[in-house]
Fold ATP-binding protein.
Amino acid sequence: MGTEATPLLEELGHDYLPVDPRSVFGSAAITLSPRPESVRQARDFTRRTLHSWRLAEHFDSVALVVSELVTNALRHGVGRPAADWPAGPRALRGDSYLKLQLMCGPARLVCVVRDPSEAPPRPAEADSSAESGRGLRLVECFSDDWGWRRLRGRSRGKLVWASFLTEDRPADD
């Protein structure tokens, strides 16, 4: 279950946000345990949210990107194997969790994943026979833009975002 939310929107900041915060008309967030089943939970949350915003036709691309961002956060952002984490977000301390936020504005949808690592996301040069290592390349291919930034102040970690045009016309910048 997700919530209406603005926290990641505020943390991302105007300089990094691919949509004008004043124009956002929909925002929903969910806290995820750093466990493998969170990828499915993130996709389900995305499906429900896009359906409620009447953007269901964008689900396939957005769900693929959300899955890759959450998987990347699980593999590289939690700092220890996901199997070692306790179940449920309430069992976690402080910033040691993952969070997904979806935001919708005129002509653009943005998804943001927060994880506790400050290490930059790095697209891997995957071998053609490798079974993994293409996540950020898929994010790059299926979204219209993506980026990241470290959190500042007392917050630790980073935000990785991807944006999608939701209409055939270019988004207002």
Residues 1-7, 88-92, 169-173 have pLDDT under 50 and may be disordered. The radius of gyration is 15 Å. The first strand starts at residue 3 and ends at 4. The domain at 3-165 is CATH 3.30.565.10 (Heat Shock Protein 90).
